[in-house]
């Protein structure tokens, strides 16, 4: 897409040019397509389920590999939960081009809603907590998005940060007697369907090292469902419009799209994933606290998204895995130096692989394919919901991105 357009945030229409008209027609045609469940979608879901099944074994049980990386089974569940959070964030940042610094609010609200339900209503069924956390995430995202999307660029990012911090200090201070303040709420999470303890092993699979617990199994199923939903959204007319807005908001307006409404929908969808993951995090920890609302959580998910690959579907899980591995395992060997090492890794990835780790893997795959096939291959269409040659949002997006 051309980058000689001025960044517009006033919602006005851009003057039409020949190039605009051609691009508009392409956008209009693209957004009129409604893909059905195809082979790629089934393959993505199948590969995701296989990865979820093998992940604990490779990370914590496989000979040699697990000894080298020093992984443990409990961390795999946490990585998947944060991966859902980061993937939902990437739907907003990577695919729509909106940089938010307030997603901790939705993550924390989903988790706190689940905690309050257990603490004061005595409802501790895990699936009910997840549903409630998701609904709260949606409602809060709609409210904050409705107010914040009145402005674009850095103003939008700062507004989301301001709303997030206001909620944090409210939960931490005035609402402290209800939310537990600094100490938070210690919870007793109920059994799955009222009969299966979440921490119990799964027959056959747990002894083999594939599924460490029922909690991991439930989270893994949620991961597969989340990937399927995200893939379907990204390959629907809605997803195509998200990408069109990221590439050039003016052109999207030119074809008559209500850009503000689509940006709000992307924000709400991303907030739903955050609330969903936040509730799972509360179930995982057996606790809910105000710290989940703190701005550092928003920064963490931004780092995970960029590290894994902005504008990819699976990069978020890679970013979450690398971040949590360094903060939970590498930290035991190097202490607080893991922060320095993470910073160096972040700089190297952004410098050498703007598409993140997932983009680097794609580049390596393409290089090997060219070497084997003698070169000259055409770029492949992305089949994982991401962009061919994953990259950062373009300049013309309204997030102030660097337009790699």
Would you kindly provide a brief summary of this structure?
With 404 residues, this protein is an all-alpha fold. 66% of the residues lie in helices and 1% in strands.
Provide a descriptive summary of the structure in words.
By secondary structure, the protein is mostly helical. The chain is built from 17 helices and two strands. The protein has helices spanning about 20-30, 40-60, 65-70, 75-95, 105-120, 125-150, 155-170, 175-180, 205-210, 215-235, 235-245, 250-255, 260-285, 295-310, 315-335, 335-350, 355-375, and strands at about 185, 285-290. It has a two-stranded antiparallel sheet with strand order 1-2. Helix 2 runs antiparallel to helix 10, helix 4 runs parallel beside helix 10 and helix 5 (about 105-120) crosses helix 13.
The Cα radius of gyration reads 21 Å
User: Which strand order do you get reading across the main beta sheet?
Assistant: 1-2
What is the number of helices? 17
Q: Could you list the spans in which at least 5 consecutive residues all have pLDDT below 50?
A: 1-19, 30-37, 376-383, 388-404
Residues in helices, as a percent range: 55-70%
Could you name the key traits of this structure?
single chain; 404 residues; mainly alpha; two-stranded antiparallel sheet; 17 helices
Give the SSE layout.
Layout: H1 18-31, H2 39-61, H3 65-69, H4 73-96, H5 104-121, H6 126-148, H7 153-172, H8 176-179, E1 185-186, H9 205-208, H10 214-234, H11 237-247, H12 249-254, H13 259-285, E2 287-288, H14 295-308, H15 315-334, H16 337-352, H17 356-373
Antiparallel strand pairs: 1-2
């Amino acid at each position: 897409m051309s980058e000689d357009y001025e960044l517009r945030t006033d919602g006005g229409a851009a003057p039409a040019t020949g190039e605009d008209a051609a691009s508009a027609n392409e956008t209009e045609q693209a957004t009129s397509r409604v893909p059905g469940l195809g082979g790629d979608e089934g393959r993505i879901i199948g590969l995701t389920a296989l990865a979820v099944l093998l992940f604990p074994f490779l990370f914590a049980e496989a000979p040699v590999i697990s000894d080298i990386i020093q992984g443990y089974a409990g961390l795999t569940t946490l990585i998947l939960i944060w991966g859902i959070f980061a993937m939902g964030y990437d739907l907003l940042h990577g695919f729509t081009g909106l940089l938010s610094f307030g997603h901790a609010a939705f993550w924390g609200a989903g988790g706190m809603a689940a905690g309050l339900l257990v603490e004061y209503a005595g409802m501790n069924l895990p699936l009910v907590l997840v549903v409630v956390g998701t609904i709260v995430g949606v409602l809060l995202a709609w409210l904050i998005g409705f107010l914040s999307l009145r402005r674009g660029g850095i103003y939008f990012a700062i507004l989301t940060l301001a709303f997030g911090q206001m909620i944090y200090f409210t939960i931490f201070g005035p609402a402290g007697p209800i939310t537990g303040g600094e100490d938070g709420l210690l919870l007793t999470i109920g059994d799955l369907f009222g009969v299966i303890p979440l921490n119990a092993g799964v027959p056959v699979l747990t002894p083999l090292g594939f599924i460490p617990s029922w909690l991991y199994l439930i989270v893994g199923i949620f991961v597969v469902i989340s990937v399927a939903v995200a893939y379907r959204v990204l390959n629907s007319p809605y997803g195509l419009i998200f990408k069109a807005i990221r590439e050039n908001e003016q052109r999207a307006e030119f074809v008559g799209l209500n850009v503000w409404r689509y940006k709000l929908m992307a924000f709400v969808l991303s907030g739903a994933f955050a609330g969903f993951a936040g509730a799972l995090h509360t179930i995982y920890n057996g606790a809910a606290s105000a710290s989940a609302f703190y701005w550092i959580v928003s920064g963490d998910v931004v780092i995970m998204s960029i590290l894994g690959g902005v504008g990819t579907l699976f990069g978020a899980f890679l970013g979450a895995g690398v971040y949590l591995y360094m903060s939970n395992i590498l930290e035991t060997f190097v202490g607080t130096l893991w922060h320095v090492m993470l910073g160096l890794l972040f700089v190297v990835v952004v410098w050498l692989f703007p598409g993140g780790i997932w983009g680097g893997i794609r580049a390596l795959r393409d290089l090997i394919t060219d070497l084997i096939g003698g070169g000259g291959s055409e770029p492949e269409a992305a089949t994982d919901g991401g962009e061919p040659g994953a990259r950062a949002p373009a300049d013309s997006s309204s997030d102030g991105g660097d337009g790699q």
